[in-house]
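Batch job 17 of 40 flagged for manual review because the log was empty.
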Amino acid sequence: MSGVQKKTVTQDEDGMRLDRWFKVHFPLVRHGELEKYLRKGQVRVAGGRVKSNRRLETGEDVRIPPLSDDAPEPRQPRQTKVSPEDAAELRKMVLFEDDEIIALNKPFGLAVQGGTKTSRHLDAMLAAFATDGEQPRLVHRLDKDTGGLMLVAKTRLAAQKLGQAFKGHDVEKTYWALTAGVPRPREGTIDMPIAKRMVRRQDGDAERVVAAEGEGAKMATTDYQVLEDAGPVAFLAMRPITGRTHQLRVHAMAIDCPVVGDGKYGGEAAHIEGVSGKLHLFCRSMTFPHPKTGRKMTLSAPLTGHMAETWKFFSFDARATCQWPEDLHG
């Protein structure tokens, strides 16, 4: 019988459901046992009672009660099989590859990890790149409806090094967004704590990330630049200094310029006539220390899908660049 433990959620686990996280760390504990621990409040996240579908955030502590050492052995998982179509699609996503990492251009609408209603996802597709029984590992996440650059580690050591880089804020990410409205001023920093809260809606209560203070609120900082504008919309570059769930979408709404297609946070204000109703948010580039050499490298992803079409529609420069101030945040 092990004693009470506390584990901290890592950067690459951000957004993972608690039940899936528990399965990874404690495979001998059955789902029914986990539900029992949760009902009794023996498993807690950030000190509070939660449900098994709770999405975890980087830095949160998970309390694990004493676990039996003679729990029944879990069934052996089936070998993941990837269809030829998914394997071919995965190969088309590859932007860069060496012995340590693979950089992918994730399509809009493809989930990164599986869930109750998600059987097709990037994590499973990575089995197509397995060599000598070792499958590439995710080291960070992108929301299903967000497209763009993703890094994948080819080895356990590379995953550890990249995970540390993400957790230590040694990775600089630049996102491109189309916003309904042009921010004033055209360049600045949004410094606004956010938290998950239950929000009352006409169709029922729902959990949302909102600007908040007090218990559960976490510091969130985003830099932005308007690169171009056309009438009611703006082409924004956004740099998240912190990595909170839905941070960019919530911060865009906080300056009254919701990301186009973001009905969850922007509602009708996020709809622009003649433009795709899909989310217009894309991870354009990352600068990070290479897991083997430690040298900084920068990779970029070309716009794809509906955002590429929108950029053509507004005649925006799909090869635009931005320069972030080096000493802006010390």
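Reviewer: the log was empty due to a logging misconfiguration, but the result itself is present. The chain has three domains: 5-64, 84-167, 172-314. Unflagging and moving on to job 18.
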